[in-house]
């Protein structure tokens, strides 16, 4: 009885089951759904995410288009694991603990378009793991622990357009790793540990248009880093704390419209490497320790529309910095050390639409008046520029001042040269002369001095400009004579003076006398880069005398050099013989100059020289 009852019950369940199946058969085609998964026949979708699954369920409908296995505990994908799912278009395996993908794991998925494998524990992708995926468009293998891409890993993925491989521990990409990716448009290698640019591997990707990479260990971007990537339009190099510069030809071969070089160690704008990028519209150099933008060096980027340099160390944007950039419409210079941004930096501020100058220690004087004048047309991106100085307007937004308040605000004091009494100096050759150029103005004027030949004088050399604006002519020479000009200028205006210098040569001076004179100066004056031409063409020594003598007396020079030294002294001795007593006495111990070469040739042990100048 008991058995019969059981049989009866079993038959009953069977009938119920048949009834259910019959019902479903009479309606839609059957859609078996794996336990714990959500199936949506109308979308051809099976959603098995977040189920602690340790293996891929095996009763998945062959007609499924979308299969979600994300956030489970899958560890391994076996050989031909999905071979029955030939209709599958999207497969999500992210957030599992996958560490092994066997060869041909995805074989048979000839219609698969998207494959997500991010946030797993993959360390290596065996060659052939991705074979049999001829239609795949997107492959996401980001946030794994992949160390290396081997040759031919992606060989059969001829349709792949986007490869997302950021946040891996990638150290190396083999030369032919990307071989076969003929249609790849986008490649992301962000936050990897690459030690060098995988130039060879990248050169296979001739269709690439967008590349993101991170070069954690590189100090300089080498020449020809991206050769054969002529279709590349967007390049992002980011998070490279050691990258201090770009080699001259590092970006050669590229025709970019967008370039991002952020979070690196660039201390200046890479003007020369960028020069040929005439189609560039977007340039982002944010978070680099760049101090200034120099004049007239970005002009080749004639189509540039957006320039970002946020969070740098910018102290100055020189007048003319954006000269030639006739389409610039966005400038983002938030969080720098700028005290001002002059209108003269731009080609024309009329094109500017968006300006970010917030978080800079701005001085609200005449140089920033243009910002106030244009504030109705400018978008400050909700972060308007704020005055830091002068004190009485500290903390106020430039746009908040009214026309009525304006007089007395945003003012400058024109550059003025203070002591204007004539400076005319007559002196004898060899004397040191100073000319003064004291200035006043707000902002502090810059001072330049021009020589009689209208060349700019620098802060080094025999004729130099001191830090207080004074011009110093040391060891004056006849050819230094003439009028020198001091120019002082600031944003509010300029001022200039001329001073005159007349240097008298020695009476009845002859080339020989001059020669000796110059020779003597050589003891105290060792600058080899005199900015003024030596009109007499007198170049007494090809090297520094002081060094030479020290070297000789210390016994560093051996036989050969002592011969050379002897020759040099021989030369001068013979040149200045007769007149030498008028200016100098040269005592030459132990060998007499005349016997120099012969004795040197005999190679005596005593090769020390002592020289006295009286
Ligand atoms: C799949 O299921 C998960 C959890 O059950 C849910 O969060 C997710 O939105 C579902 N996905 C789709 C496409 O329905
Ligand atoms: C998966 O496992 C975790 C921890 O073992 C548990 O808290 C969670 O409820 C499980 N989820 C499901 C859907 O069983
Ligand atoms: C990659 O770099 C990250 C962060 O810099 C580091 O934690 C990780 O250990 C590196 N991996 C390898 C394999 O060097
Ligand atoms: C890059 O190429 C330029 C021009 O050929 C050369 O002058 C420069 O030294 C090279 N730089 C490096 C780092 O190789
Ligand atoms: C960045 O460059 C500067 C020199 O420009 C150098 O002193 C500094 O050490 C570099 N920083 C790093 C992290 O390499
Ligand atoms: C460079 O790119 C621009 C814009 O994408 C394109 O119009 C131009 O033809 C390209 N020039 C070359 C030489 O490829
Ligand atoms: C300027 O840069 C900051 C910081 O990167 C960013 O948040 C902001 O959106 C940028 N503004 C514009 C207008 O690009
Ligand atoms: C400028 O400095 C130099 C040297 O430091 C000094 O000799 C000269 O008197 C100074 N000039 C003025 C105007 O202070
Ligand atoms: C100096 O100022 C005058 C007008 O005051 C101006 O014409 C001239 O161009 C300025 N020169 C320089 C070098 O700024
Ligand atoms: C050299 O200069 C002195 C004055 O310093 C002069 O007396 C002498 O005649 C000059 N010698 C020659 C050859 O010109
Ligand atoms: C310097 O001398 C050379 C040769 O004597 C001459 O060609 C050149 O023009 C001179 N330069 C100046 C600035 O006088």
UniProtKB/TrEMBL annotation:
<dbReference type="InterPro" id="IPR001611">
    <property type="entry name" value="Leu-rich_rpt"/>
</dbReference>
<dbReference type="InterPro" id="IPR000372">
    <property type="entry name" value="LRRNT"/>
</dbReference>
<dbReference type="InterPro" id="IPR003598">
    <property type="entry name" value="Ig_sub2"/>
</dbReference>
<dbReference type="InterPro" id="IPR003591">
    <property type="entry name" value="Leu-rich_rpt_typical-subtyp"/>
</dbReference>
<feature type="transmembrane region" description="Helical">
    <location>
        <begin position="548"/>
        <end position="573"/>
    </location>
</feature>
<keyword id="KW-0812">Transmembrane</keyword>
<dbReference type="Pfam" id="PF07679">
    <property type="entry name" value="I-set"/>
</dbReference>
<dbReference type="InterPro" id="IPR036179">
    <property type="entry name" value="Ig-like_dom_sf"/>
</dbReference>
<keyword id="KW-1015">Disulfide bond</keyword>
<dbReference type="InterPro" id="IPR003599">
    <property type="entry name" value="Ig_sub"/>
</dbReference>
<keyword id="KW-0433">Leucine-rich repeat</keyword>
<feature type="domain" description="Ig-like">
    <location>
        <begin position="407"/>
        <end position="500"/>
    </location>
</feature>
<dbReference type="InterPro" id="IPR032675">
    <property type="entry name" value="LRR_dom_sf"/>
</dbReference>
<dbReference type="Pfam" id="PF00560">
    <property type="entry name" value="LRR_1"/>
</dbReference>
<dbReference type="Pfam" id="PF13855">
    <property type="entry name" value="LRR_8"/>
</dbReference>
<keyword id="KW-0732">Signal</keyword>
<keyword id="KW-0677">Repeat</keyword>
<protein>
    <recommendedName>
        <fullName>Ig-like domain-containing protein</fullName>
    </recommendedName>
</protein>
<dbReference type="GO" id="GO:0016020">
    <property type="term" value="C:membrane"/>
</dbReference>
<dbReference type="InterPro" id="IPR050467">
    <property type="entry name" value="LRFN"/>
</dbReference>
<dbReference type="InterPro" id="IPR013783">
    <property type="entry name" value="Ig-like_fold"/>
</dbReference>
<feature type="signal peptide">
    <location>
        <begin position="1"/>
        <end position="26"/>
    </location>
</feature>
<dbReference type="InterPro" id="IPR013098">
    <property type="entry name" value="Ig_I-set"/>
</dbReference>
<keyword id="KW-0472">Membrane</keyword>
<keyword id="KW-0325">Glycoprotein</keyword>
<keyword id="KW-0393">Immunoglobulin domain</keyword>
<keyword id="KW-1133">Transmembrane helix</keyword>
<dbReference type="InterPro" id="IPR007110">
    <property type="entry name" value="Ig-like_dom"/>
</dbReference>
